[in-house]
C-alpha cells in the first residue's frame, strides 16, 4: 500500500513538473505565410467584418461574432499593418494579432501570433495547452482560406485579370468627337467606314473591331475605332494606318453592357496602379460580340486590353 502511494506521489510530482516546467504561463503560437496580394488589399480583407465576410462562409456571420469551426471571433482594432481579434471558446479567450508587411511589389508577408494565459491551476494549464495544440490547425485553416481567396484576382478586382501579348500589330483606325457618349449605332457606323476602306485596299480584317472612348471634358467624348488587318495600307483622309508592337498587356474578358465594360476597364486601371505598371498606350475594347446582331447586352462578350511595361 505504501509502495502504491509512493508511485502515485511520484506520478503526481512528475505531472506537476511537466505542467509547470514545460507548459509556460503564456502559450504562444505563430504562423507566417506569403500571399500574392498587395498589402492594401490584404487590409481590406482583414480590417473589418465586411472584409472577413468576403472570404469566410456566409454561415459564419449568423450573429454579431464570426463563427469559425469551434470558435467565435470578436474583431478588435486595425491599423495599416495589424489587425487583432479574440477567439472565444466557452470561457477561454485566445488573443490574436495579425501583422502584414509588403514583401515585394506583388506579395505581402502575413504573420499571426496567438496567445493565451494558462493560469496557476495545473488542470486548467494542461487543458489550455491541449486546446492551443488544436487551435494551431484552426489558424492553419484560416490562413489557407485567406490566401486562396486573396490570390484569386477576380475576388479582389471583380474580373479575372491575366497578362499576355497584344494579339495584332497592324490596324486601320479613325476617330470622332461627340457631345455625348457615342452609341453603338454610331460606333458601328465608323467601323463600317473602316471596313469599306480596308476592303478597297485589299486588306483583310483578322480580328474583331476595337474601340476606345475618352471623356475630353464635361460635355465631349472622343472615340477611336480600329480594325486589325493583315497588311500595311496608306493613310487616307480620316483613316489612319497604325503599326503597334505586340507588347505586354493586361487582359480581362467581361460579359455584359456598357456598365460592366466600364467597371472592367476601371479594374484593369486599378490593377495597373496597385502593381506599379506603366502604360505605353491606351486601353481598348475588342468587341467579340457583334452588338448590332445581339440586342441583349447581357450576352455581349468584350475582351479588354491594357498595355503595360
TrEMBL record:
<protein>
    <recommendedName>
        <fullName>GyrI-like domain-containing protein</fullName>
    </recommendedName>
</protein>
<dbReference type="InterPro" id="IPR011256">
    <property type="entry name" value="Reg_factor_effector_dom_sf"/>
</dbReference>
Amino acid at each position: 500500500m505504501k509502495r502504491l502511494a509512493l508511485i502515485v506521489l511520484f506520478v503526481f510530482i512528475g505531472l506537476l513538473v511537466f505542467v509547470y516546467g514545460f507548459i509556460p504561463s503564456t502559450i504562444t503560437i505563430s504562423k507566417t505565410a506569403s500571399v500574392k496580394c498587395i498589402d492594401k488589399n490584404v487590409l481590406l480583407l482583414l480590417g473589418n467584418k465586411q472584409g472577413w465576410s468576403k472570404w469566410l462562409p456566409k454561415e459564419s456571420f449568423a450573429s454579431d461574432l464570426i463563427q469559425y469551426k469551434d470558435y467565435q471571433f470578436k474583431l478588435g482594432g486595425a491599423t495599416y499593418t495589424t489587425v487583432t481579434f479574440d477567439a472565444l471558446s466557452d470561457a477561454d479567450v485566445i488573443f490574436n494579432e495579425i501583422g502584414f508587411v509588403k514583401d515585394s511589389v506583388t506579395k505581402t508577408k502575413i504573420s499571426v501570433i496567438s496567445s493565451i494565459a494558462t493560469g496557476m491551476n495545473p488542470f486548467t494549464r494542461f487543458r489550455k495547452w491541449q486546446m492551443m495544440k488544436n487551435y494551431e490547425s484552426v489558424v492553419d485553416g484560416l490562413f489557407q482560406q485567406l490566401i486562396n481567396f486573396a490570390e484569386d484576382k477576380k475576388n479582389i478586382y471583380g474580373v479575372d485579370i491575366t497578362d499576355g501579348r497584344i494579339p495584332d500589330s497592324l490596324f486601320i483606325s479613325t476617330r470622332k468627337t461627340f457631345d455625348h457618349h457615342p452609341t453603338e449605332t454610331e460606333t458601328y457606323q465608323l467601323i463600317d467606314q473602316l471596313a469599306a476602306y480596308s476592303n478597297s485596299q485589299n486588306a483583310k480584317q483578322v480580328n474583331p473591331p476595337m474601340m476606345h472612348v475618352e471623356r475630353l471634358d464635361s460635355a465631349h467624348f472622343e472615340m477611336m475605332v480600329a480594325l486589325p488587318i493583315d497588311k500595311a495600307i496608306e493613310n487616307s483622309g480620316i483613316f489612319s494606318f497604325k503599326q503597334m508592337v505586340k507588347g505586354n498587356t493586361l487582359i480581362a474578358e467581361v460579359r455584359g453592357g456598357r456598365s460592366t465594360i466600364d467597371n472592367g476597364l476601371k479594374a484593369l486601371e486599378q490593377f495597373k496602379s496597385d502593381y506599379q505598371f506603366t502604360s505605353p498606350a491606351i486601353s481598348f475594347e475588342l468587341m467579340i460580340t457583334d452588338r448590332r446582331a445581339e440586342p441583349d447586352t447581357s450576352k455581349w462578350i468584350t475582351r479588354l486590353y491594357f498595355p503595360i511595361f
